[in-house]
Amino acid sequence: MPNILATVGERRDDPDHLLLLGDDGLYYDLRLTDGATLPLPPTQDPGDEWLLDPTDDPDALDLTG
């Protein structure tokens, strides 16, 4: 059965890495440069290197308008 993934953030130091949350409850790193999706260590918190929900960032690009 395929895993369903939702984008929930990006790396603070490299926006070419998106943080995904799988329906299995685990986090994944999507590297936009090559399309690889790698599992992060199975912890509850993805760590400080990740910015969760980048729409909370005032410098984030607004694609809605």
Topology at a glance:
Blueprint: E1 5-11, E2 17-22, E3 27-31, E4 37-39, E5 50-52
Structure at a glance:
By secondary structure, this protein is mainly β. The protein has strands spanning 5-11, 17-22, 27-31, 37-39, 50-52. Strand 3 (27-31) and strand 4 (37-39) form a beta hairpin.
Describe this structure in words.
The protein is mainly β. The protein has a domain at 1-41. It contains no helices and five strands. It has a five-stranded antiparallel β-sheet with strand order 4-3-2-1-5, with no helix packed on it. A hairpin with a 5-residue loop joins strand 1 and strand 2 (17-22). The N and C termini lie far apart (36 Å).
Number of helices: 0
> On the 0-100 scale, what is the average pLDDT?
81
Strand order of the largest sheet: 4-3-2-1-5
Distance between the termini: 36 Å
Which geometry do the CA atoms define? globular
Radius of gyration: 12 Å
Strand content: 35-45%
Largest sheet, described in full? 5 strands, antiparallel
Q: H/E order of the elements? A: EEEEE
Total DSSP E strands: 5
